[in-house]
Design a protein that fits this description.
With 87 residues, the chain is mostly helical. 61% of the residues lie in helices and 11% in strands. The chain has a two-stranded antiparallel sheet with strand order 1-2. Helix 1 runs parallel beside helix 3 and helix 3 packs antiparallel against helix 4. It is globular and about 45 Å long. The two termini are 16 Å apart.
Amino acid sequence: MPFLSGARNQKNSYLSQQIFDRMKKLFPALHNQLATASILLANVYASSGEMEKASDIRIQLHKSGIKKQVGLAWTAPNGQIFVSLQL
């Protein structure tokens, strides 16, 4: 996922698509992680102005019924624990 995030930061839709395709091929059973990767890919396309591709990805996700998993982030500054949702 870090490579896909890096490609997203560079707004490189071609590299993002290649990384995503490779992830799908190597890890076909990891549906939740692929959902997150799909959203990242859609965001890359949207930020580069390719709204139709971004929309197609989001429609496919909706049709498949796979949802991005909510995560938690834990921090403990000065011994006090804080929990935040990562949507």
